[in-house]
Every structure is written in structure tokens, then in C-alpha cells.
Amino acid sequence: MATPALMQNYGNRTLTLVRGEGNYVWDDAGRRYLDALSGIAVCGLGHCHPAVTEAIQDQAATLLHASNLYNLPPQEKLADKLVTLSGMDNVFFSNSGAEANEAAIKLARKLGNERGLAIPKIVVTEGAFHGRTLATLTATGNPKVQQGFAPLPEGFLRVPYNDAAAIEKLAAEHSDIVAILVEPVQGEGGIRIPDADYLPRLRALCDQHDWLLMLDEIQTANGRSGKLFAYQHYADLLPDVVTTAKGLGNGVPIGACLARGKAAELFTAGSHGSTFGGNPLACRAGIAVLETLENEWLIERAAKLGSDLVEQLKTELAGCAQVKEVRGLGLLVGIELDRPCAELVDMARAKDLLINVTSGNVVRLLPPLTLSDAECSQIATTVAALVRDFAAKAD
């Protein structure tokens, strides 16, 4: 089914999905697919998890919306849980990851304006993806995504990812920097995992220059990396601002910008807002997600499954010359090939498996945290065989 009533910004979509349950989705012909993409890291608990379904059904029959003019108990409960689990001080709720990052950018701008800077600068990285609003589009380090949308907002300085020395050099050249915005792992950029000392060096730079360290965890948070937030892999490292979305609602749109210290005091009454952000329905879903992650030990399971998946892929792809690297952190797994490999998406679909290719040549696997051991092994075996077939045909 396809209709011209939809804008064509998503291109030609050839698969119609009508139902999801657990780690599987079904198309309109009744065919079942193992979902190793999870709606691009959204459905971490799988599709239609009973705890989330029960929470949103109950809330839908109780109170859907009342506006942020009033106290909303689900919003307060979710904020309390996020603050407790993250080590941050407070939360701003939005509808999406882009809006959460937009809030982070506005925090940095607010700090810069309070310091009397005409155009405060935020350091961002090549290969980053922060969203598609004008500000987050500008922060995104992909010229193809920005193409056709000029003029873009000013106030961003771009450096290579995983290059703290480049930021040290910027610090010597620019006195108007107020923040660094960076992903702990680049997802859209190709599952790029930085060196172990990268984030600690950025934290030290921010402390030295009184900048904000702002981490975009839209894709990496909510247990996917093997910790609730990816920065929690580092002992004693706290950002000043961290954003999350995607898996927080398990399919219900919600985003959150968390802040601490001076960053937590920048927004005052009237300085920012969102009509639907933090509505009771989305917050009940978020509470159900966090409780399920904890009750079912899914964060620890993501760490184990991710490790198993990477190791099996490395074993099954050993000797495949076209594979440059298999890498991952938790259930963020990438297989980098030495050539474009978008056709692997259709090849996998023919094997009843949903995957994604990003950056042109990186197979991206983001399966649900509820994956069984057998399903994890099935993904590795199927993908490895497809990559070998693809490589053999390409040469």
C-alpha cells in the first residue's frame, strides 16, 4: 500500500508492516520478520510489551492531556526516576530526540548569552547525527542531511570524532566556546566507538574552560549499550547535560533533556516549553520501560547479548576480506565493509530479518533487549552468511 497523500521524504517504501509482538513484526501478507533494528533503537523491550501496553491503556482511560500549566503525577514520577538513575538534577520533557537536543542547544546558548557572548559556540563532531530541526540539523555532521536547507543557524564548530586534541586546539583559538555536544557512540555515523580516554578528556576540557559537556544519548541510552546511559561505562564521569529519547517510550514518542549543576538552573519560567512534552501517556510509558528494564534485568542482558553477537559475528566472518571491522557496545553492533552494501537490507528481508545499513557501508544491528539466546545466534548466522554471499558476488 502506498499513497501520494504522504510527502515522499522517506522514499519508496516497499514493506508494509501491520503488527508487532515481542521481537517480531508481520507484514500485510502475514509474513513474519525477526526485527534486528527495533524501529531504529526504539522498541528495546520488543513490540507491544505487556507492561507498556497495560500502562498506556490505563493512562488513556484516565487522563491523556492537561498541559504543563498543571502538576502531572506521571511526569513527576518519571522525572524522579530519571534523576535518581542518571545522577543529574532535573529534566525537561519533549516529544522527540531532536527536541531534546534542541533543548540542550538552547541551554548552551542561554549560558553564552548570560556570559555576554554575541555568538556562543558549541563544538560538534563530524559524522554526528543530532536530529532534523534546523539547529540539530546544523549540529549534525553529515553534509547530505543539511543539503537544501540553507541558511543554517550559526554558532557551531566542527571537529573530527574521537579527536580530543582537535578540541584542545579550538580552545586556544576561540574564547566564545560554551559547550561540547557529542554522542558517546556514533550510531548513524556507523556505530563508531571512541577511544576509552575520549570522553574523560572532553570532561577535563569542559572543567578546565568552564564549558558544558552535553552528551546525545538518543540512541545509546535506556539500556542499549549495556548501561542505562552509555556514560555510565566510565567511572565517575558525569555530563552537564544528557539527552535521551527512542527507547524511553518503547514506541510512544517522548524525549528528555537532563541537566545538572549550573546547566540545571539556566531554564526559568517561560524560557522554554513544549505543549505535549511530558504528557501523562508518554510518561506512563517511560515509567513502564524503566521498571521493566530493572525488573527483567534487561540492561545486563543487553551487555551479554551484545558481546555474544559481536564474538559470533567475528568468528563467522573471520577471513572475509571485505569486512573491515565488527564492533559494538551492548546491542549497538556494526559490521563495516570495504564497499557500499545497502542491498544487504533487501537480502536480509528475503531471509525474514530486518536490518539497516548506515554510512553506506556499515550494517547496523539494534535488536530488542528481549532477544533470546537462540534469536541472537540466528541474527549472527544469517547476517554473516548474507555478508559472505554479498562479498562473493561483489568481487
Description:
With 395 residues, the chain is an alpha/beta fold. 36% of the residues lie in helices and 17% in strands. It has twelve helices and 15 strands. The protein has a seven-stranded mixed sheet with strand order 4-10-9-8-7-5-6, with helices on both faces. Strands 1-2-3-13 form a four-stranded mixed sheet. Helix 3 packs across helix 9 and helix 10 runs parallel beside helix 12. The mean pLDDT is 97. Keywords: Amino-acid biosynthesis, Aminotransferase, Arginine biosynthesis, Cytoplasm, Pyridoxal phosphate, Transferase. Its EC number is 2.6.1.11. Pathway: Amino-acid biosynthesis; L-arginine biosynthesis; N(2)-acetyl-L-ornithine from L-glutamate: step 4/4. InterPro entries: AcOrn/SuccOrn_fam, Aminotrans_3, Aminotrans_3_PPA_site, Class-III_PLP-dep_AT, PyrdxlP-dep_Trfase, PyrdxlP-dep_Trfase_major, PyrdxlP-dep_Trfase_small.
Observed structural traits:
PyrdxlP-dep_Trfase, Aminotrans_3_PPA_site, 395 residues, alpha/beta, 15 strands, pyridoxal phosphate binding, amino-acid biosynthesis, seven-stranded mixed β-sheet, four-stranded mixed β-sheet, globular, 12 helices
Q: Classify the oligomer.
A: single chain
Number of strands: 15
Radius of gyration computed on alpha carbons: 21 Å
Structural category: alpha/beta
Biggest sheet overview: 7 strands, mixed
Helix content: 25-40%
Strand line-up across the major sheet: 4-10-9-8-7-5-6
- Label the overall shape: globular
Tally of DSSP helical segments: 12
Cα distance, first to last residue?
36 Å
The topology string of helices and strands comes to: EEEHHHEHEHHEHEHEEEHHEEHEEEH
Please mark out the parts with pLDDT under 50 across 5 or more consecutive residues, or reply none. none
The proportion of residues in beta strands is 15-25%
Overall pLDDT level: 97
